[in-house]
Design goal:
This protein has 7 helices and 14 strands. It has 265 residues and is of the alpha+beta class. It has a 6-stranded mixed β-sheet. A 6-stranded mixed β-sheet has the order 5-6-7-8-12-9. Strands 10-11 form a two-stranded antiparallel sheet. Helix 4 links the parallel strand 7 and strand 8. The protein is globular.
Length: 265
């Protein structure tokens, strides 16, 4: 089973450019998780009868955030947003930007043998004003997925808006303490690992040079001066079923590129 994740940074634009259609034709994912769709279902001209579609769009601001799952296998159940139990335990509250759980950031799909959870993690902001929110979010999401993991293995994917180690960005030294590479955000990633999840890509490849997001400035993508901020995290019990984990920088259409894993069924 091929599972892909892609922050499209506006599904309507990616469809309009023809890149979404090209992606589906070339990669033919069994399950596709999208982040930052910036749209509601039906607002983009998508004709994919082979897929079930599940959308979670922002209730707080139209055209903002949002996630979607396209799957050839009908799920047992779909859960949108972080359940209130974990919102409370994580201390996830309204801040100056709004309530992150009202922004269509999370979809969980239950299948026979595992859950697939996709999320668009809130950005800490250039001035780091959303670091407290990020810490609450990381706690709530980790506890939520750890709870799901008690029932069956979890495949978590999406734009996590953090480079975990110095190997996960081209220029680590000047970015220490900045958005996406603060101690707080990196510690939040460590919590996932402590909860029994594995960074799927790092099972197969080590070292730097593997990035999923590039700035639009200074031909960063052409020079591969980027950050790895999009991930698949999988329950340890799935390690032996993982056949591959890949990054697909050749796919254009967004400032992020797709990532994928292949799992034995």
């Amino acid at each position: 089973m091929k599972i892909y994740s892609w922050n499209v940074n506006g599904i309507r634009a990616v469809v309009r450019k023809g890149e979404f259609q090209k992606f589906i034709s070339e990669y033919d994912p069994d399950i596709l998780c999208l982040q930052e769709t910036k749209a509601e279902q039906g607002q983009a001209e998508i004709d994919l009868p082979q897929y079930e579609e599940y959308w979670n769009s922002s209730k707080a601001k139209k055209g903002y955030s949002g996630t979607a799952i396209f799957t050839k296998v009908k799920p047992i159940a779909i859960i949108n947003d972080i359940p209130e139990t974990f919102v409370k335990v994580g201390g996830l509250v309204l801040d100056n930007y709004g309530h992150s759980n009202d922004e269509g950031r999370v979809i969980a799909a239950e299948f026979d043998n595992f859950y697939v959870v996709t999320a668009y993690t809130p950005n800490a902001k250039d001035d780091l004003t959303r670091i407290p929110l990020r810490q609450q979010w990381d706690k709530a999401m980790t506890l939520y997925c750890a709870d799901l993991q008690k029932k069956k293995p979890v495949i978590y994917c999406g734009d996590m808006n953090v480079a975990h180690t110095e190997d996960d960005l081209a220029n680590p030294k000047p970015n220490v303490g900045k958005k996406g590479f603060t101690a707080e955000e990196r510690s939040g990633f460590d919590t996932w690992l402590a909860a029994g999840f594995l960074d799927a890509f790092r099972i197969f490849k080590q070292g730097n040079g593997y990035y999923t997001w590039w700035s639009h400035f200074a031909k960063s993508r052409e020079r591969n001066v980027g950050w790895r901020i999009d991930y698949f995290l999988v329950s340890k019990s799935l390690k032996d079923k993982l056949k591959s984990a890949e990054i697909h920088p050749e796919q254009m259409g967004s400032d992020h590129c797709p990532i994928s894993i292949e799992v034995e069924e």
